[in-house]
Amino acid sequence: AQSVAQPEDQVNVAEGNPLTVKCTYSVSGNPYLFWYVQYPNRGLQFLLKYITGDNLVKGSYGFEAEFNKSQTSFHLKKPSALVSDSALYFCAVRDGGRGSTLGRLYFGRGTQLTVWP
Amino acid sequence: NAGVTQTPKFRVLKTGQSMTLLCAQDMNHEYMYWYRQDPGMGLRLIHYSVGEGTTAKGEVPDGYNVSRLKKQNFLLGLESAAPSQTSVYFCASSYGVEVGREQFFGPGTRLTVL
Lengths: 117, 114
Known about the structure:
The complex is a heterodimer of chains A (117) and B (114). Chain A is mainly β and 117 residues long. Chain A is built from no helices and 12 strands. In chain A, strands 2, 5, 6, 10, 11 and 12 form a 6-stranded mixed sheet that branches. In chain A, strands 3-9-8-7 form a 4-stranded antiparallel sheet, with no helix packed on it. The model of chain A has no long low-confidence stretch (mean pLDDT 91). By secondary structure, chain B is mainly beta. In chain B, 0% of the residues lie in helices and 51% in strands. Classes of the chains: A mainly beta (117), B mainly beta (114).
């Protein structure tokens, strides 16, 4: 069964400092991993994904994520945080199996990122 | 191109009342999903559809029904609302089954059941 863990409910960082939002996963086959961001009173927006290839994935708004197979992790990073990055971040793993469950995403509980000026 | 839209945005129901949430997408996506979001629990899949006329149960289907009569619409129904169904409901869609296909989300419906 697929599952995702986001061990931190909250991450606080000063503007201009690097940020990391952690995610670990458990899958029965190849991992297909996603990060989404949710701003207040909005739906989820896609940030980036890892399917195969380079372990460092670059996405929207200057975010990147590092895939580490041995540690089963997919941490979200940004070199210099902005106040506008404050939001709720979700890591998700994709069900890659055959049959009617194709396309299903399993989400972590979310991490609230606060960037203070 | 509106993407994924949801109506209504907010709703307050009394226990036992019924309602239908409407999701519409204009991207010609085959796959559509209904999630609920509760504090500290992330998003949980209620029902989903892999094409027009098809539906399937997700993680937490009890108390909900769905229909996909048209490709662009996915309806979520609550026949007899309960306080435990107070939540934020998100609809999502995706084009295909390739593993790289991300899901596109609507803005959500905030439902309170008294």
